[in-house]
Amino acid sequence: MIAAFVPLILIGNAVHLLVHPWFVHAELARMAPDPYGMAGADRRRLADTALDSITPFGGGDRVLREARLPDGAAFDPKERRHLHSVGGYLWGLYAIHAAGLLTLAALLALPRTRRLARDGLAAGAVWTLAIAVFVGIYVAAAPVSFLGGFHRVFFSGDSWRFADTEALRRLFPDAFLSDTALVLGGLVAAQAAVLLAVTLAVRRQAMRAAPRTAAHAR
Q1: How many whole angstroms from its chain centre is CA 173?
Q2: Within 10 A of 164 (CB to CB), how many other CB atoms are there?
Q3: For the chain, percent of residues with pLDDT exceeding 90
Q4: Less Cβ around it within 10 Å: N or C end of the chain?
């Protein structure tokens, strides 16, 4: 059971790091200019607005309704509904992340469950690395297929499909989403590798200490 939650906890760590303007701005700086003429400053401003709308305790739908471009509202109702759905998933991930960290802390704090937690973390790290390798290869080989499959799993119908002229496509094109998936996967894999190394080192140390403890007990 612990192993099943490790990937979600590590993903939560990585998402906490990336859901900030610095990452969005860095990615937009690498993207080609908007083909429909949106200025770079407007692109960053509206990307920050979209990010604020999905972040827990952020501006929500209000900031989307208030966002403007020279020709009118920046986000249409369909885009706002989609971002509301994204925000709901982010709330869920953060809730699982917090509950998982608290549970692990409690298990590691109790001597009788410490080994169970350690073994669960090691198994979860291996499971996470396997997932990260698969996703990394998939995204690198077929980014459009991966993004389409991902969205079909989490969003109904065509609620996630937008025309190239709509704001969300102009702010977050496929290249942006593919890069985000690769960076997120890399961060998760790095955490899993460190976690596996640490848990194995602790296990070896515990195994070496066990004979000495038994000898002292005689």
Answers
A1: 18
A2: 9
A3: 81
A4: C
